[in-house]
Amino acid sequence: MVTQADIQHRSxxxxxxxxxxxxxxxxxxxxxxxxxxYYFDVAGLRLxxxxxxxxxxxxxxxxxxxxxxxxxxxxxxxxVCFALWGGLAIFVNHGFSQWQFIGIRIIETLSPYFIARWxxxxxxxxxFLALWLFISVLVMLPFSIHQNYTNRSILLDxxxxxxxxxxxxxxxxxxxxxxxxxxxxHPILYGLFCSPxxxxxWYVLGYDKSFFYKLPRVGLVTLAVFSSxxxxxxxxxxxxxxxxxxxxxxxxxKKKWNLLLxxxxxxxxxxxxxxxxxxxxxxxxxxxxKPSTAWNRIHIFNNVxxxxxRNPVFGIGLKDWTRPRWMLSSVDNFWLVLAMRNGILGFLxxxxxxxxxxxxxxxxxxxxxxxxYRLGYLFSLAGICIAAIxxxxxxxxxxxxxxxxxxxxxxxxxxxxxxxxxxxxxxxRARRIRYTRFE
Length: 439
Hints:
Blueprint: H1 4-13, H2 26-35, E1 39-42, E2 45-48, H3 49-56, H4 58-66, H5 74-94, H6 99-119, H7 123-150, H8 154-159, H9 187-194, H10 197-205, H11 211-227, H12 231-249, H13 256-274, H14 279-286, H15 291-310, H16 334-363, H17 368-387, H18 396-407, H19 416-423
Antiparallel strand pairs: 1-2
Helix pairs in contact: 2-3, 2-7, 4-6, 5-6, 5-16, 6-18, 7-10, 7-11, 9-11, 9-12, 10-11, 10-17, 12-17, 14-15, 15-16
């Protein structure tokens, strides 16, 4: 009989009948799908590399979740509810006319999350993920720097010889440079793709390495993020760096993260009471590259929140939001778009599991390598979640967020004993006692 304790032990170690290790090929396959610029249309649905991977492995990932090799968690149930509620909200607003969007949105939500739950189940698999993300950033970096100066994407030009690819996005220069997009559809998406690799490189790939080993590698990631010239991507790295400094400076303080939350709560209340602008308006005003962008985001926030309050249950789906005729249709706030399209409940069904992940992963009693990996995971996830306040996440980057959410669940049941057990050599000979009272 397999007990719950056996399931937890297999989950921590990635062992059992459904070991994650034989499936690690899915990590480079999915990351390659994220950065390959090819796409083609089938029955009115645009398919790219990552969507093909997600569609193929959707059912296997769900089966692996339910096969007993790991327990079903409240976070998992909330993620399923988030995906289904989003589909229901679109159906209520549009009927069957948007069946392709409903189907692909459910797949893009659940498939990357449960693929990560299936594949990333121990420290080795998590480091493998960090390594492949780092490699993908390095591959695109020289082409991105070239685009900063020439406004020409060598990657997209090359791949266009073999099929349909994303177009090069034309923007006015910023800081005297053109915006790089790597091989992704937009500079914002490219910057956000690179940004979570910042903390992962320092804490995971750089674990137990010297400062001078880690610094140039993190510097390359920072350069890649900078090349996008995206304020949202910069914000993600800034958040990660600030958390790293807070963790280092207050290393001896036990409740340092509670203290940080109290400080932010106090700052929010102070701005709400004593400022003539709301915290959201202050955020928009000081975290953008151009004053006109800040002004536009304030008006977006005001108009979209009005639509949310008028449609609190199912949102407005894919309908156009209420705004003056001179305003553009884009909403540069992922969390705001969730509430606008899916209603307040749809927004909460994602926000709550994100909060639970931070709480449960943060509470796990880890030390050494696992504690370092956890910091890299939580800081990178915090960076992209906070940056999502100032940008929208769509296509591959939305799927990357879902994958990142699933990739850290294993920390909750991880054990330093399991990590130490894996590091011990397996031998048929008796082990030598390392320490005795005579040594």
